[in-house]
Structures are given as structure tokens and as C-alpha cells.
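Incident log, support desk, overnight shift.

02:14 A customer reports that sequence design results differ from what the structure should imply. Their input is reproduced verbatim below. On-call engineer (initials T.W.) acknowledged and began investigating.
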């Protein structure tokens, strides 16, 4: 049984007239009669009681009618779902992020924007180090990644799209000798213990980035696993941290944020995705949220 046969049956059942049903379907009446006859032969009985004056549903036709309508309704739903999926309006998307993307508000802002445009897309979030995000995107187990951009070489199949740039500030406890300064120069931090967010194989890139910001490699370093720990340790006087200005929006009791006066770089953020992208949802996401934000 073909879907067109069901559609033809429903048209005749609605019009109760082969001529009008044929005109509605834009086919010749003899062709419609042949198709209905083929359907009846397949089902093993007459769907209509025909006389020279009228057409009526047979007992079998009356039973078949609601089932045929269900078939058409399901087919229409399937068609509409497929069309929405092709537009990136239906399905799911897997997004990885580092803590800075969350605490800066960048990720939340993008998710709100995407949700408003595509409310029926399911969003899966996972906090991951930058390199693991790239690896998972390569293996198609992650669709989008939010990472700091250290301008390091990436695999040619990974697309890195800049999404924001912000100045740096120094996070430190209020009783630190430099906390009262209106701005802090990098040289004034040479003897300080730096608390940095770095995990395993990501440490090298992060350390080199800190050195590029300051103009020298810090001599005293504490490595921690997430952004919140960085800020907690800095507020407790267990070190200082150089962080993007966006993190100063996070209010932690006993925390001061002072601009870094002579930072040699800005804090760059980027969105990672597969370069040869075929997912309509991912393409839609990149189109919606892809404009750089917060550039100063």
C-alpha cells in the first residue's frame, strides 16, 4: 500500500464523488478509479459502495477511514519534522565549554539567543578542557566547543571562530599590598604566586599565554582545576590571578579586581566546530551566535 493510495482514498471519502475527488487531486477520474481499485484489491474488499447515483463508504471502508487518517497524520508529522530538522529547528546539539565561558556570561548569552530561535532543539552541556573539546569534535562526539583562544595551531579539520575579546584584570585579596592601586603593572607581579586554571596537557598552552600577557614567565605557580577555585584562592590571599575582565562580574566576598595596566594581549575566546560541518542544527547555531561579543 502506497501513501498516495491512502491520500486518494481519503479524498474520495471526503467528497463522496469520484469526479470532485479527482479534480481536488488534480488527476483524471479514470486514473483515480484505477488507483482505488488497486487499493481495494490489495486490502481484499470494496472500500466504497458505488451506484450510478451515489458513492458511500462500505463497512470495510468505514473501518479503514480512521486508520487511513492516522496514517496521513503521521506522514504529515514525519514530513514536518524532517523539514524542521533540515532547517536546524529540531534535534539535539552537544556543547562543551571551559569555566571561563560560563562565568563570563558568554555561553549563557549564546544559549538564550539560540533557545529563542530554536526552542525545540535539545541542548547537552559538558565542561571539558579545551583540547578534549577539540578531540571530541574531531570524533563527532561533540558539536560545539567554547575555549580560550591562545592562537595555537589547531588541526585543519577544526574551525576556530573568534567570539570575543576582553582586557585582563588582576584578582587578589583586599588586604594585598596592591589591592588599593587603580591599575597594576605586570612588573609589580614578578614575585607573586600565580593561581592558574590549567588541566594536564592544557597547562603548556595556558602557561605560555600567561607569559605572553605579562612579558615574562611567572616563577611561582599553583595549578587548579577550575575557574571558581582560581578566584577562591585569590580572594583568600593564597596567590593572585590574571583573569579576563568579564570574571569581575562574579562577586566573591573578600575579592578585589584591579585592571592590569600593560597587558600585552587581550583575553580571546573562540567557538570550535568541525570545519566540514553537515549538521543543520550546528550550522544554525553558528549562524545565530557567531558574531563577536564584548570586544574592547
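02:41 Re-run completed on a clean worker. Output:
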Amino acid at each position: 500500500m502506497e501513501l498516495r493510495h491512502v491520500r486518494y482514498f481519503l479524498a474520495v471519502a471526503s467528497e463522496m464523488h469520484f469526479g470532485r475527488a479527482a479534480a481536488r487531486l488534480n488527476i483524471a477520474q479514470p486514473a483515480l478509479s484505477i488507483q482505488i481499485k488497486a487499493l481495494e484489491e490489495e486490502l481484499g474488499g470494496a472500500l466504497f459502495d458505488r451506484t450510478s447515483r451515489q458513492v458511500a463508504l462500505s463497512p470495510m471502508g468505514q473501518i479503514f477511514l480512521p486508520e487511513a487518517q492516522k496514517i496521513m497524520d503521521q506522514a504529515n508529522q514525519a514530513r514536518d519534522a524532517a523539514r524542521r530538522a533540515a532547517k536546524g529547528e529540531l534535534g539535539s546539539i552537544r556543547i562543551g565549554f571551559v569555566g571561563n565561558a560560563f562565568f563570563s556570561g558568554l555561553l549563557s548569552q549564546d544559549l538564550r539567543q539560540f533557545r529563542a530561535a530554536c526552542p525545540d532543539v535539545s541542548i547537552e552541556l559538558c565542561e571539558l578542557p579545551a583540547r578534549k573539546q577539540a578531540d571530541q569534535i574531531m570524533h563527532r562526539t561533540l558539536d560545539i566547543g567554547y575555549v580560550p583562544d591562545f592562537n595555537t595551531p589547531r588541526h585543519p579539520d577544526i574551525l576556530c571562530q573568534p567570539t570575543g575579546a576582553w582586557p585582563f584584570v588582576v584578582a587578589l585579596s583586599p588586604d594585598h599590598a596592591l589591592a588599593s592601586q587603580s591599575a597594576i603593572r605586570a612588573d609589580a607581579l614578578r614575585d607573586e604566586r600565580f593561581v592558574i586554571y590549567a588541566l594536564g596537557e592544557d597547562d603548556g598552552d595556558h602557561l605560555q599565554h600567561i607569559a605572553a600577557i605579562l612579558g615574562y614567565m611567572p616563577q611561582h605557580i599553583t595549578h587548579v582545576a577550575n575557574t571558581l577555585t582560581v578566584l577562591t584562592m585569590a580572594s583568600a590571599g593564597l596567590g593572585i590571578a590574571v583573569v579576563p575582565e568579564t570574571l569581575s562580574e562574579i562577586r566573591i566576598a573578600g575579592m578585589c579586581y584591579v585592571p592590569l595596566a600593560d597587558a600585552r594581549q587581550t583575553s580571546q575566546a573562540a567557538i570550535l566546530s568541525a570545519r566540514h560541518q553537515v549538521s543543520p542544527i550546528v550550522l544554525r547555531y553558528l549562524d545565530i551566535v557567531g558574531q563577536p561579543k564584548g570586544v574592547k
